[in-house]
Amino acid sequence: MGDRSVEVSEEVYELLSAIAKRKEKNVDEIILECIAKEIDPSTRIEVYMKLHEKYLRDAEELYGKGDLAQAGEKYWGAITTLLNAIGEKRGWSHYSHRDYAEIIERLSEEVKEPLGRFFASIERLHANYYHNFLTKVNFEAHREDALKLVQKLRRLTGC
Length: 159
Fold this sequence. Notes:
Oligomer: single chain
Helix content: over 70%
CATH superfamily: Nucleotidyltransferases  domain 2
Distance between the termini: 17 Å
């Protein structure tokens, strides 16, 4: 899935950005939510998985450049799009931060493993995007947890 641009007016983009910020998502995810009812579930899952791959690539690239705040937000996107795919596949709500936390709790019970501690690390990376407080050593520890969670969630997607 290559990067393609769609031109929208500044006013529309500002609205999308405001909604995305309020929902702690990015603009791509907000647009996907808006069009989701128009596409079948298997296509939605496929799109979530492609977004996951894109965000993870972007996160690694930004991390390599030393842009930790932006990289952390991309790791957040990589995790939440996996949670969206899992939620979509299982018929679970996956539209809010609370939904993500509930999915993690349900999955933890299912696999008998405390995934919440890994999710807490990705939440920390997400918060760092807004406040830029993490040192490199702590960022790297949370990044390692994020990558572990990616692997665990990928196995659970069945994709």
